[in-house]
Amino acid sequence: MRRHRAVLEALFTRSPVPTAVIDAAGRLSRVNDALCAFLGRSADELLGSPMHELTASEEYGPVGPGTSEQRFEDPNGEDLWAVVHAVDLPESGEGVMLVTFDDTTSRRHNEQLLLHAALHDSLTNLPNRRLLRDRLDTALSRAARSDTTVAVLFVDLNDFKKVNDGFGHEVGDAVLVAVARNVISALRTCDTVARIGGDEFVVVCEDVAGEGDISRLVDRVLTAIRRPVRVGDHTTRLSASIGVALPSPAHEDSDSLVRMADLAMYRAKQQPDVDYVLADESLARLGSPGAGLPELRHAIQANLLQLHYQPVVSVDGLLIGLEALVRWPHPERGLLLPRDFLHIAEGSDLAGPLTDWVLRTAIAEAANWPDPAVQLSVNMWASEVARPGFAQNVEELLDWAGLAPESLRLEMHEEDLQTAGPALADELAALRELGCGLTIDDYGTGDSSLAHLRRLPVDTLKLDRMFVAGLMDNADDSAVIEAVASAARATGRRLAATGVENRAQLRRLRDLGFDGVQGYLTGAPAPLPELRELLRRRRVDIR
Questions:
Q1: Taking the model in full, what pTM does it have?
Q2: What radius of gyration do the chain's Cα atoms show?
């Protein structure tokens, strides 16, 4: 019996699982070494302490049988998380319980990293488009209650491409970080500065009294941007075009205001002698729902749109695919990128025709590629994929063009999945049965849990470019990518990444088990004729 007790004592003391015995008063009467190590406290400090006082959760009361996740703090004030399991231990007396602690700190930390990364630009650490929308919605709600107004500034750096082309992307990135820092220093702490594109920023300012305030605000922003920026041996001087939008009865939601400010910015670019353009009624008409639809409808019907393709390359330099990207050669605004016009079609009666045009055109062109092993990738709105009969339509297009289903990969943005409706899963299942590849694009920027993803028959996760940008010099972004890579492997998904700009990033992604990459390093989007030689040799020099 004595030997048996000694064995039980050793099992308790030496167990790698943090464990304690709680007496009837809820105090720790026994603790093992693993619990001391987890909490960063000695046994003398812990013994006799009420269990509920150890937690950092205010709502946590007296311990009772059951399971819950609780937050603790180490002696330095750092958060610790554990799933606490408590069971009655009647052999030791009434009300006595055995409590174990399953350390979930790493998981919680990774979740926080993912959340932060999903809401912030990885280069500048500014809010991204998603967090901007939330901040602007909150600002508009406050303004409505206090009878004040909000100003939205859309800021586009002029000729920034010359910085990247002249000095390289690393210098360009450093300049963007410096510009972001300068703009923040010129504004109030209550104002929001967000980066929503390569050289595009949006500023949200509350409690704006009138155009005098706007003029002073713009002056501060422009002064900050015009400040010379020195990176190494290079000094750059920048200017910017700024569009400003204020809420109006016709445009009082966040998306509409940003779009109005964007339109005003385009007008400002045409007037280099003015500091900014304030959105007026003429722009309001352009920015209203349905604006631009007739032009885009004509462009689709007249076959005036174009497709460019970006190489998708394996981590050892083999061309494995081309991603189709739509372009609109606008008669007045020049060659428009998807961000400039897709919002016109999304949710309108043009969403279907535009989707059909891109899919039909891309499949027809891919059928004539010299090597069928190069896969075609096409971006789709999840809501369009969820249309009844979509998979059948894809099958008919493939038969018509003579392209094998295995040569087609459809990509959907993570943020779209939650709102596409229950029919999406059925259409995706039909597409997988057909043999098409399915990818979640911009992974990490939305709210999709891995549990949700497991219900969808997708085979590839494509990491958003904002994580890759900070891979080598941002510990948080690196940790996020490692977490995503681990999750993808656990669920049998392949991994791809966009925004790969240098060999160091490529090597790190290769080490983490990524399969395909896209970005400046492997090739920018280009018209198909310019990629014929690449299609023929199928190798990209990424050494």
A1: 0.58
A2: 28
Q: Which pairs count as long-range contacts for 505-509, CB under 8 Å and 24+ apart, including other chains?
A: 505/468, 505/471, 505/472, 506/315, 506/542, 508/471, 508/472, 508/478, 509/315, 509/468, 509/471, 509/481
The helix (run of H) or strand (run of E) holding residue 242 is: strand 240-245
Q: Which amino acid makes up residue 146?
A: S
CA distance 137 to 245: 14
Burial per residue of 521-537, b for 16 or more beta-carbon CB atoms within 10 angstroms, e otherwise: bbbebeebeebeebbee
Determine how many CB atoms are found less than 10 A away from the CB of residue 508. Answer: 18
Neighbours of 59 (CB within 10 A): 7
- Distance of alpha carbon 423 from alpha carbon 87, whole angstroms: 44
- Compute the distance between CA of residue 244 and CA of residue 259 in angstroms, rounded to an integer: 10
DSSP state string for 330-368: ETTTEEE-HHHHHHHHTTSTTHHHHHHHHHHHHHHHHTT
Tell me how many degrees the CA angle 101-106-109 measures, rounded to the nearest 5: 120
Q: Which of 84, 103, 122 is the last residue of a domain?
A: 103
Q: What is the pLDDT of residues 112-161, one digit of tens each?
A: 777 777 788 888 999 998 899 999 999 999 888 887 889 999 999 998 88
Same domain as 360, residue 460: yes
At residue 65, the pLDDT reads 86
- Residue tagged 């920027």 (tokens): 445
Query: In Å, what is the CA distance from 454 to each residue of 112, 183, 216, 414, 461?
Result: 21, 42, 52, 13, 12
In this predicted structure, what is the pLDDT of residue 446?
Answer: 56
pLDDT digits (tens, 9 = 90+) for 76-96: 888 899 999 999 988 888 889
Instruction: For residue 427, give both structure tokens.
Output: 């259409």
Please, are residues 23 and 89 in contact by the beta-carbon 8 Å criterion?
no
- H or E stretch covering 183: helix 169-185
pLDDT tens, position by position, 332-389: 777 888 877 887 888 788 889 999 999 999 999 999 998 889 999 999 998 899 988 9
User: Residue 83 is part of a domain; what is its CATH number?
Assistant: 3.30.450.20
Contact 50, 69 (CB under 8 A): no
Q: In terms of Cα–Cα distance, which of 379, 486, 377, 434 is closest to 114?
A: 486
Domain at 330, CATH number: 3.20.20.450
Range of the domain at 325: 293-537
- Match 């098409």 to its residue by tokens: 436
Residues 6+ positions from 256 with CB-CB distance below 8 Å: 250, 287
**What residue type is 228 in one-letter code?**
P
What H or E segment, with its residue span, contains residue 394? helix 390-401
Residue 456 per-residue DSSP state: S
